[in-house]
Amino acid sequence: MYTELKSYQIIIALLKQYGISHCVLSAGSRNVPFVHSIEEDPFFKCYSVVDERSAGYFALGLAQELNQPVVISCTSSTATCNYWPPVAEAFYQGVPLIVLTSDRDPAMLGQWEDQMIDQVGMYDRHVKKSVNLPVVENKKDFWWCQRLVNEALLELDHHGKGPVHINVPMTSYNISFNVKNLPYVTKINRLETDKNLDLWSSKVEKLKQSKRILITCGQNSSVSDQLKIEMEKFFHRYNSAISVEYMSNLSCDGVINTFTCWDTRYVTERKFLDFIPDIVISFGGNIMSGVKEMLKRNCGKFEHWSIQEDGRIVDMFMSLTTVFECSPEYFFSYANQNSDETQKNDRTYYNEIKSYADSIVYPEFEYSNVYVIKNIVESIPSDSMLHLAINGAIRITNYSMLKPNIKVYANIGTHGIDGCMSSFLGQASVRSALSFLVIGDLAFFYDMNSIRIRHLGKNVRILLINNQGGEEFYYNGMWQDEASDLHTTARHHTKAEGWVKECGIKYIAVHCKDELEAAKQVFFDEAYDRPVLIEAFTEMAHDSKVLYDFYALSKPVDMKQKSKEVIKGVIGQEAAKKLKNMFNK
């Protein structure tokens, strides 16, 4: 029988999956849930060494002679300090030890709790990986704990061997052992290019059998010609579709910009079930489109294979099973070289997604930030550079149809408001062709000092959407009432005109469609002798409404969604919001 504590259940289950069976145990109260659980499990070989310092060195010798990782487990407080010397020795000798330290309630740290010190990261400079597990109380905690234990165990022999540290907090002393079976856990495999050849082969076989392979391409500042060639070959041979957004900077046969059709405010959860893949293959950086959230909501229904050149664990869909430590070029080339010559994509899955994306109805938008951004970005010439500030600029641009070969940047590694314009100006300074920035008022005023940088060239073109505040808070439903405008949306009545002119930039104010058309004559004039900035004035509440009206034109509606709309129609938007908040308490 096993302990009731989920964190230790996960540890034990994963130790068994990794084939780690030798454990050196030091007596103590806090590690009893682990100790008693494994001493009754015939898979484990247990050794009792009371003194933790001696136990650590004993385990070091075991690991060296067995050429296998060994677990050391102790109670909380100064018992953990006695592991220091053997852990340091293991680190410098490259010996794989799993240092399992039991801990107490994190809320009681520094509150004179008996036998409690700060154990988090205590061996950091002398272990290859250190993780502090959550107290597992729900499904998300379980996933988090499982991922952290995987991260630690994977580092035991990753680019050299060495010790890892797993700290296990618990809120109360628990000696209940009434669990017959360990939970199902996912062991994350990491495949390197020169190892695990049998696993590589098995993965290719799985690809051959799959009917629905979704490739999600995150942010890339550049994509090699080789990658484009290999991805097209892969698409032609395997039953796949390639989900992109403009920041992916990938254009080849098989790509679909799913930003709109899988936006969480457009596609319903029921409708997205029609597109659940068998396997998701991800590469690149962050993903801004709704595909990330929709896949996360359906975690566990598919396998996630992550291509990471440094081998990092990136479980963005909470379904990670395999990490391929290689370049995307290597991965797709390997899959292509090992495919059958007669193998061909039947395009069923691709056509389902493409048909859904093509069914979206785009109206003639009224004057708004949607109209202005869409109008401008669709007019940008091929082979230009476009930088998008966060949120609205990214969203609306991805609802648009850009010309070919436009390189698109955005600071979405951290997705922060600061520095968008400075980054753009750095990019534009080493280009001679026209370079474009789409930015909102809050991001602009945050970084306004950057336009006085002396390296500002005449190729700079800035579209500033001034809707007097953070429209994102209207869009996300965070706006509650007029009071929200003060501190949430940061409503203002500031214009950029004075500062822009002072910096020697051509300034054009726009308030309507006709003014925008006139401004474009200068904005897209390559021969113009100065940088140009258009400040387009819109209103954030109206901008948000225009977007939701657009969604409503062709958004799929299931019974749950239809019920919500009926309620809103009967009692009104504000009353519906209050009702939702009441039930969420």
From TrEMBL:
Q: Name one GO biological process term.
A: menaquinone biosynthetic process
* Top EC class of this enzyme: transferase
Enzyme Commission number:
2.2.1.9
Entry annotated with the keyword Metal-binding = yes
The organism sits in which domain of life?
Bacteria
Q: Which residues cross the membrane?
A: none
Q: Which UniProt keywords apply?
A: Magnesium, Manganese, Metal-binding, Thiamine pyrophosphate, Transferase
InterPro entries (alphabetical): MenaQ_synth_MenD, THDP-binding, Thiamin_PyroP_enz_TPP-bd_dom
Report the GO molecular function annotations.
Answer: 2-succinyl-5-enolpyruvyl-6-hydroxy-3-cyclohexene-1-carboxylic-acid synthase activity; metal ion binding; thiamine pyrophosphate binding
Domain named Thiamine pyrophosphate enzyme N-terminal TPP-binding: residues: 9-122
Q: Which NCBIfam families match?
A: menD
User: Can you say what this protein is called?
Assistant: 2-succinyl-5-enolpyruvyl-6-hydroxy-3-cyclohexene-1-carboxylate synthase
Its organism's taxonomic lineage begins at: Bacteria, Bacillati, Bacillota, Clostridia, Lachnospirales
